[in-house]
Amino acid sequence: MTALGKLLRTTAFRLTLVYLSIFALFAAALLAYFALNTRRMINDQIVRTLDSEIADLTRQFEIGGLRGLMIAVETRAGHPGSNLYLVTTRTGDGLVGNVGSLEPGVIERTGWMETAYRRIDEPEIAEHQALVRVLGLSGGFRLLVGRDLEERERLFSIVAIAGRWSVAIVIVLGIVGGIFVSRRVLRRIDAMSDKAQTIMTGDLTGRLPIAGSGDELDRLSANLNAMLERIETLMRGLKQVSDNVAHDLRTPLTRLRNRCEAALRSARDEGDYREAIETTIEESDTLIRVFDALLMIARAESGEPRGGMETFDAAEIARDLGELYEPVAEEKGFVLHVKAADTAPVKGNRELIGQALANLLDNAIKYAGTAAVDAEGDRAVPDIAVTAETKADRVILSVADRGPGIPAADRGRAIERFIRLEKSRSLPGSGLGLSLASAVAQLHGGELRLEDNEPGLRAVLILPRADGLQKAT
Ligand SMILES: Nc1ncnc2c1ncn2[C@@H]1O[C@H](COP(=O)(O)OP(=O)(O)O)[C@@H](O)[C@H]1O
Ligand SMILES: [Mg+2]
């Protein structure tokens, strides 16, 4: 599209044209009204003057007869720049007056007329317009009184010319102004589209320009920039996930593959094969769990589950999980205490919050036992406490153990994806449990906190409390 075409197509320019037409029409109408009214006013004035002259002259005729009238007309017609006067006989022959010629038939009729005329002392060609009134007098005489219309026409033409000029100026100024405004808007839109192009080609850090005037384009830019910000965050998350997948899943997959290859090469009997296949299945299960966890985290971080949120009782979840994990905990030598409030209403995704709390419980059972035995040398019975309580506008779910805990410096890091602390490497796990718990908390507008339980770790899920809960019966 050419630059001009683009300009003509802008909303600003079209609006200008619309306003311009309205203004031009208005100006034209105003001037026409003014011109016509002026003309009418002048006409009225002429009519009034002539009427009074006619009244004067007919009085002269009544008093002094034809002679009196002729004398009066003679004196009046002699003044320079005087009105037009003519007295004729019934056959139309001029008796006295300053009119040289008239349009044919004018003198035969009576009443008001506009006619071309020539003064008696003027050369043949000069013709002017006049407004005249012809009156029949007794005895068949006729009296014509009139006034030249040049003044009226001149005034009318002055107004008409001024009108044409002002409409022309309005149009020119309007178009120039329209082009100026449209070009400014166009320049900003072009800058925005250019930036959008570079962003589309992959530079997600780019932002649309903001002029700082706070106008509608600025607000649009600001909103689009906020959108870009969000997209960038999501993309960064996605990139991190794919990096993690590439890095952390490749290793176990390679290991899996190598083990199969080794089995193929060196297995001697069916027992060897069976063992190799069993390990393979085991490792595949781990991988599947990792994939599931990764997907769940990605889903939580994308905010997708926000659609299907319901109000449910988190205290109930704590009680259920306590029951579920009790046998495992007991088997490992823990005493599991559940201290849950009657209700702890949370609006959210029940499945995800349940998974998050399960991850914390899983960690406590997995990591607390080792130290309890190592540090004290004997099997003191370590406690694991699960609590669910409401505090002001929040619901607090916590799992506290009395194991080695996490040193303060490592607490932030432990939440990151695939991070497993040095001393836990020997235990099974993938380093995703806390990441998921944290992502779930953030999804619900809450947070995951790791605290010192002195000794041990207290992992706390803080969630916003929901308004009410319809207790399921
Ligand atoms: N209750 C706990 N006591 C001590 N260390 C913990 C505890 N919970 C988590 N950790 C540490 O944080 C790391 C990350 O935990 P997590 O994300 O659940 O991964 P995973 O359990 O798969 O290793 C663990 O590897 C462990 O080092
Ligand atoms: Mg874990």
Write the layout of secondary structure elements.
Layout: H1 3-9, H2 11-78, E1 84-88, E2 94-97, E3 99-102, E4 111-119, E5 128-136, E6 142-148, H3 150-200, H4 216-266, H5 270-302, E7 310-313, H6 314-331, E8 335-340, E9 345-348, H7 350-376, E10 383-391, E11 394-400, H8 408-414, H9 433-443, E12 447-452, E13 457-464
Helix pairs in contact: 2-3, 4-5, 5-9, 6-7, 7-9
Bound molecules: adenosine-5'-diphosphate and magnesium ion (MG).
Adenosine-5'-diphosphate binds near residues 419 and 429.
Describe, in plain words, how this protein is organized in 3D.
The protein is α+β, with helices and mostly antiparallel strands and 473 residues long. It has helices spanning 3-9, 11-78, 150-200, 216-266, 270-302, 314-331, 350-376, 408-414, 433-443; strands at residues 84-88, 94-97, 99-102, 111-119, 128-136, 142-148, 310-313, 335-340, 345-348, 383-391, 394-400, 447-452, 457-464. A hairpin with a 2-residue loop joins strand 10 (383-391) and strand 11. Helix 5 runs parallel beside helix 9 (433-443), helix 6 packs parallel to helix 7 (350-376) and helix 7 (350-376) runs antiparallel to helix 9. The longest helix has 68 residues, at 11-78. The structure holds adenosine-5'-diphosphate and magnesium ion (MG). Magnesium ion binds next to helix 7.
